[in-house]
Amino acid sequence: MALLQRRPRTDPAPSPAPPAGRAGTGGRGRVRRENLAAYGFLAPWFVGLVFITAGPLLASLYFSFTDYSLIGDHEVVGLANYERMLTDTRLHSALKVTFVYVFVSVPLQLALALALALVLDRGVRGLALYRSVYYLPSLLGGSVAVAILWRQVFGAEGLINQVLGFFGIQGEGWVSHPDYALGTLIVLNVWTFGAPMVIFLAGLRQIPAMYHEAAAVDGAGPVRRFWHITVPMLTPIIFFNLVLQIINAFQTFTQAFIVSGGTGGPSDSTLFYTLYLYQRGFGAFDMGYASAMAWLLLMIIGGFTAVNFLASKFWVFYGD
C-alpha cells in the first residue's frame, strides 16, 4: 500500500534568468545588423539621389542666375535670365506649340485608351495578346527608331501619301508643312495609348458588376450606365492617367527632335519647349538661360499638377 501512495507533485525549478547586464544584447545586435544591411541596399539609391538628381538640380538652380557657356567661367547676373524670357519670341512660340500639343493630344489619347479598354473589358478572346499588342506603342513611342519611322510615314513619299495617291489624292509633305507638322506629332502621341489603356482596363475590372446589373434592371441602357456608373467609378483612374500624361507630354523631346531634324520644323511649328531648351543649352551653349528655362518648365508642370489636384475634389469620386 505504501508503494501505491501518490508522491507529492513538485514543479520543476525555474530556469535561471540571464544576467542583467546581458539582457537583450543579442536582440539589439540583430536589429543593428539588419539596419546596416538595409542601409547597404539603400546606399546606391542615396548615391544616385545626391549625385544624379539632387546635385544637378541644385546646380541648375544656381546656374539659372548666371551667364554660363559650359566652356568658360560663369558670371552671376541675378534675374537677368528670367527677365529675358519676357522678350524671347521663340520661347513664346515654343510655349504655344507645347500647350497646343498637350491640350489636344492628351484628351484624345485618354479617350482612345478608354474606348479600347471598354472593348477589351467585354471579355474578348486572346485578351493577353491584344493587351500586349496595344501596349507595345507605349514602349516604342518615345524611341528614336519610331520617330524616324514616323518621319518616313508622313514624308512626301511616305506611306500616307502612297495610300492617298491610290485614290487619286495629291498628298502633302506632312512633316515639312507648317500647318500639318504639329498634327503628325499629336497623332504619334495619341498612338502611344497603351499604358493608360492597361490602367483603364485594370480599373474597369474593379467596378462591381452588380451596379450595372441593378441599373439594367431599372431600365438604364449602355450609354446611361457608362455615364452614371462607369465614368464616376473610374474617375480616380482618369485623374491618375491625366496627371501622368500631362507631365509626359510637357517633357516630349525625342519625337520633335527627330521629326523636325532638331530645328523645330517649318516656321517653328514643332518647336517644343524642351527642344528649344536643348538648342539654347547645347546648341548655343547658353547654359545659364537654359537652366532658367528648365526651372520655368518645372514651375509650369508643377502648376498644372497642383491645379489638377485642387480641381479633383469637384469631380473625382472615391466612394465616400
From TrEMBL:
ABC transmembrane type-1 domain ranges (all copies): 95-308
Record GO biological process: transmembrane transport
Gene3D superfamilies: MetI-like
Subcellular location: Cell membrane
Transmembrane segments: 36-63, 99-120, 132-150, 180-204, 225-247, 290-311
Membrane topology note: Multi-pass membrane protein
A GO CC annotation given for this chain: plasma membrane
Keyword check for Membrane: yes
UniProt similarity note: Belongs to the binding-protein-dependent transport system permease family.
Protein name, as recorded: Multiple sugar transport system permease protein
Species, as recorded: Nocardiopsis algeriensis
Species lineage: Bacteria, Bacillati, Actinomycetota, Actinomycetes, Streptosporangiales
